[in-house]
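User: Can you help me understand a structure? I only have the sequence.
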Amino acid sequence: MKRLNILHTIETSGPGGAENVLLLLAKGLDQERFRSVVAINEHGWLEEQLHDLGLPTVRVEWKRWWDLRLPRGLARLVREEKIDLIHSHLPDQNFYSCLASRISGCPAIVTYHGPVELKDSGTLRGWLKLQLVRHTARQVVVVCDFVKQMLREIGFPDDRLLRIYNGIETSRFSGVAGGELRRELKCSPETVLIGMVANVRAPKGHEYFIRAARIIADKHPNSHFVISGDLHETLAPPLFTLVRDLGLQDRLRFLGFREDVPRILTDLDIYVLPSTSEGFPLVVLEAMACARPVVATRCGGASEMVDDRHTGFLVPTANAEAIASRVNELLEDKEMGAHMGSAARLRVEREFSVQAMVANYECLYESCFSANRATERAGLPVRAGGRV
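Assistant: Let's start by predicting it. Here is the structure, written out as C-alpha cells:
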C-alpha cells in the first residue's frame, strides 16, 4: 500500500485532551506508511508543540459556523498536499471537514470526544451540523461507549460508529522523581496530598472538590489539596471565594496551568476527578499510570477507565460528601490504596497506551483508503460518506 497523506484538523489550539490526542497521533503514526499535515485555525499551544516536532502545520482562519473560508481552505489543502484522508476532531471541525470532503471528494473521518460536544444537537444549527456529518463521514470515531450511545440515540447508524479509546504515553509517567511539588508547597513528610488537574471550566466540578476538601480536612488535619489547570477569568474568582469561606486558604493551592503534570501526579497520594460531565479524561489515565488510586465521578468515559473498588472508586456526580467518603476510606487504609494504584498502572499499560490508540487509527486509515480504492476500481460513483 502506498504511503497515505493524512490531514489532521481541529477547531482549537489547546492545551486540552482532544488537542493532545491529535498531537500524539500526528507524531506517533508510522512515518513509512503515513505522512501527517495539520490544519488549525489559531495560534496557541498545539501549534507550538507541532512546530517543535517539525510537523507540517497550516493555519486556515474562520470566524463563524457558516464561514466557508475554512472548508474551502481545507479542500485546497487536500489538492495541494495530495491528501488521501481528512481526520478531524471536535464538533465544528467535524462539520467543516465533512463540507471539505463534499467539495474535494476526499473521505473524512471524524472523532467526537465527549457529551458536551453534542449539547447543541437539539437546536436547528446543531441538528444540521450532525446530519451533514452523519451522511458524509466515512467513519465516526468515539472515544468511549458513553458517547457512542449518545450518537446512536440521535440517529447515527451502528456500522458507522467505531470506539477507539484514547491512549497516553505511559513512559512519561514511570520513573518520575518525586518530591518537587512537595518542596514547592513546603509540605512535611507526614502531609497527605490530594489533587485534581483540570482547567477551570463549568463541567469540571471544582466546587465539589473544594467542598470535599473541607470534609476531608476535618477528619484528617494533615491533608493538603492542589488544583492544577488554567484559571478562567470569570469562573475562577468564585472558587477563590469558596476556599476562603470554607477556611481552606492554608491548605488548598491553585497551581495554575502547569507543563509538569507527571511530577504533580507523582507527588499526590490520591487523585480526584470531580467532573459533572466528561468524555474521556486523559488525566485519569495519567494518574493511574503514576500508580495513584483514583476517586472519580460516574460520568462519561471515566466509568470505563476506573474499575470500581479495584483500581479506584467511582462516585455519583455533584456529590462532595461521596468524594470525601471515598478519599477518607483510602486515607484510613493505605495498603488498599497501594494495591489500587498498582492495579491501575497495569490496566493503563494493558488497555490505554498510546501505541494501542495509534495502531487502531492506522488500521482505520488503511481500511478506509482501501475501501475507497476498491469502489473506484469497480467504476462506481464515490460519495464522501462511503455509500454508493
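Now, to help you interpret it: Confidence is low (pLDDT under 50) at residues 382-388. The longest helix spans residues 354-377. Let me know which part you'd like to focus on.
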